[in-house]
UniProtKB/TrEMBL annotation:
Assigned keywords, A-Z: Oxidoreductase, Transit peptide
Positions of the Fe-containing alcohol dehydrogenase-like C-terminal domain: 235-422
Protein name, UniProt field: hydroxyacid-oxoacid transhydrogenase
Enzyme Commission number(s) of this protein: 1.1.99.24
Alcohol dehydrogenase iron-type/glycerol dehydrogenase GldA domain segment(s): 17-187
Entry similarity comment: Belongs to the iron-containing alcohol dehydrogenase family. Hydroxyacid-oxoacid transhydrogenase subfamily.
InterPro entries found in the cross-reference section: ADH_Fe/GldA, ADH_Fe_C, Alcohol_dehydrogenase_Fe, HOT
Ranges of biased composition (kind: Basic and acidic residues): 218-231
Catalytic activity as recorded in UniProt: 4-hydroxybutanoate + 2-oxoglutarate = (R)-2-hydroxyglutarate + succinate semialdehyde; (S)-3-hydroxybutanoate + 2-oxoglutarate = (R)-2-hydroxyglutarate + acetoacetate
Organism lineage string: Bacteria, Bacillati, Actinomycetota, Rubrobacteria, Rubrobacterales
Domain of life per record: Bacteria
Length: 425
């Protein structure tokens, strides 16, 4: 027992997963045993075009289950796009949900399920200070998530991320009940992902794992008064560490291969599994500085048109918005946990490092960024030094995440990190 009033408890709540090439063929069997008879199948136009959605629909219908398809999930969801899906969900009288697609489709399904089950306005549930921080009073209807990108780990996490354009900020809804009830992870579904999408998604995986591993340990937080107040992101703990470590190992070993050759089934499979492993790790421990900075980087301007992404609206791909500040963030956090930073570096390169310092992990990350064609830094995504204050403001709004950093982060620290991140090489 900690005598200092600090937290003594952590939890690990993971989505039960089914993994392997061909696993998505069992989607009908899985949803049937979840006791569902009428499904809202949430997807996006790209996945429909790739003929994945009709196949999934067929497999579910073959089990005698009614299916209605919602295929208008946006790559970067907004409160409005969530609302449209939630209205459809409310009117449809569904008793279960299946999400097929990237993080955006899965997040859209989480929010549709939330509103269909408990009603209310989306903004009421959004994390404060932007939203009301309302908590769903009881579990949602069953949700089965089938990711088609190897990145967000959304099938394993308790959050849904959304863009609030009028406040020019991205934020989220997070609660343990938002976690999908089951996930089917099938690497064959990622084969058509363009290399830029693979790069961004894979770097997101690496950041989830590294930030989780390098988050403030759960027992350095003050103990909560009642279990309902224990945050979903609890800080580093021995169980989350295992998942994060394995994901780092996979990211270091397989991401370059998956980007270089999309047909490399072994590399695709490892990144897909790595995304879920990291999702379980960060669903428990949490992410902090790079993800906090990523929200304003992606939310403040909508000018960057990334290669390999749909041309319907400009956006900064999530993984790229995160990775650009990771080297400077981990240079800043190094002195809080030198040994753990060294271990993250070792996992990424797959060998022992004798003499590590604050630049070791940043240099390894920069090499990985170069090798997978990531942007050089924040400037390439459309910002200059004059906009650092605005970016800092946006990042400071993510206190939910920043409290998980292994040391205190001030506005000045964030400004320095963003300045150093203008060009990483
Ligand atoms: Fe992420």
């Amino acid at each position: 027992m900690a005598a200092n009033g600090n937290e003594t408890i952590f939890t690990l709540e993971a989505t039960p997963l089914k993994y392997g090439p061909g696993a998505s063929e069992e989607v009908g069997w899985e949803i049937k045993r979840m006791g569902v008879s009428r499904v809202m199948l949430i997807s996006d136009p790209g996945i429909v075009k790739a003929n994945i959605t009709p196949r999934i629909q067929e497999l579910i219908e073959a089990e005698g289950i009614e299916v209605e398809v919602w295929d208008r999930s946006r790559v970067e969801p907004t409160a409005d796009s969530f609302q449209e899906a939630a209205d459809f969900a409310k009117e449809g009288n569904f008793d279960g949900f299946v999400a097929i697609g990237g993080g955006s489709s899965i997040d859209t399904a989480k929010v549709s399920d939330l509103i269909a089950t408990h009603g209310g306005e989306i903004i009421d549930y959004v994390n404060p200070p932007i939203g009301g921080g309302k908590k769903p009073p009881s579990p949602l209807k069953p949700l089965l998530a089938v990711p088609t990108t190897a990145g967000t780990g959304a099938e394993a996490t308790t959050v849904a991320i959304l863009d609030i354009p009028d406040q020019r900020v991205k934020t989220g809804i997070s609660h343990a009940y938002m976690r999908p009830d089951r996930g089917i992870v099938d690497p064959l579904l990622t084969m058509s992902m363009p290399s830029e999408v693979t790069s961004s998604c894979g770097l997101d995986v690496v950041c989830h794992a590294a930030e989780s591993y390098l988050s403030k340990p759960y027992d350095e937080r003050p103990k909560v008064d009642n279990p309902d107040e224990r945050p979903p992101y609890q800080g580093a703990n021995p169980v989350a560490d295992m998942w994060s470590a394995k994901a780092l190992e996979y990211g270091g070993k397989y991401l370059r291969r998956a980007v270089k050759d999309g047909e490399d089934v072994e590399a695709r499979g490892a990144m897909m599994l790595g995304a879920s492993l990291a999702g379980i790790g960060f669903g428990s421990a949490g992410v902090h500085i790079p993800h906090s900075c990523a929200y304003p980087i992606a939310g403040l301007k909508h000018e960057y048109q990334p290669p390999g992404y749909p041309l319907d609206h400009p956006l900064v791909p999530h993984g790229w918005s995160v990775i650009v500040t990771a080297p400077a963030a981990f240079r800043f956090t190094y002195d809080a946990q030198p040994e753990r930073h060294r271990y993250v570096a070792e996992l990424l390169i797959g060998e022992k490092i004798e003499n590590a310092d604050e630049n070791t992990l940043p240099e390894i990350l920069i090499q990985l960024m170069k090798d997978v064609g990531a942007p050089r830094g924040v400037r390439e995504l459309g910002y200059d030094e004059g906009e650092i204050d605005q970016l800092v403001d946006g990042a400071m709004k993510q206190q939910r995440l920043l409290v998980g950093a292994p040391k205190e982060v001030t506005e000045e620290d964030l400004a320095n990190i963003l300045r150093e991140s203008m060009e990483n090489w």
